[in-house]
Amino acid sequence: MVQKSEQKTWTKIIMALYLLTFLAKGPAYGNKMAEEIKRRTQGAITPNPNALYPLLRVMEERGYVVGHWEDNDKRSKRIYSITEHGHAYIPELVKKVTARLNEVERNIQIIRSDLL
């Protein structure tokens, strides 16, 4: 069985990959990215702001993204952009996620063939 902490780690890795691939298309703010992740995963992943924004902060600290405050008449939004370091990190994340998904698919096939 997958431990809760391991599951949280994988959720963050998958979210980071979604965020970086989304930002590779252009700058965006957190809520827009959360909506897009929810849409693209058909609701399988619904980013919680309490998890999304800390992850974006960590990604900013590690140099994968940069953020700046959009100053307008309405409430200010933090707009994020991907960095060169972030672009370079995408293939590593793809490799990690692919390996994990392959493992999960193998396990599902084993269970399916044994029980169903």
From TrEMBL:
For this protein, the record's SUPFAM superfamilies field holds:
Winged helix' DNA-binding domain (SSF46785)
Pfam families xrefs: PadR
InterPro entries (alphabetical): Metal_resp_DNA-bind_regulator (IPR052509), Tscrpt_reg_PadR_N (IPR005149), WH-like_DNA-bd_sf (IPR036388), WH_DNA-bd_sf (IPR036390)
Name the Gene3D superfamilies on file: Winged helix-like DNA-binding domain superfamily/Winged helix DNA-binding domain (1.10.10.10)
Source species, domain of life? Bacteria
Q: Where is the Transcription regulator PadR N-terminal domain?
A: 19-90
Q: What is this protein called?
A: Transcriptional regulator PadR-like family protein
Organism of origin is Propionispora hippei DSM 15287
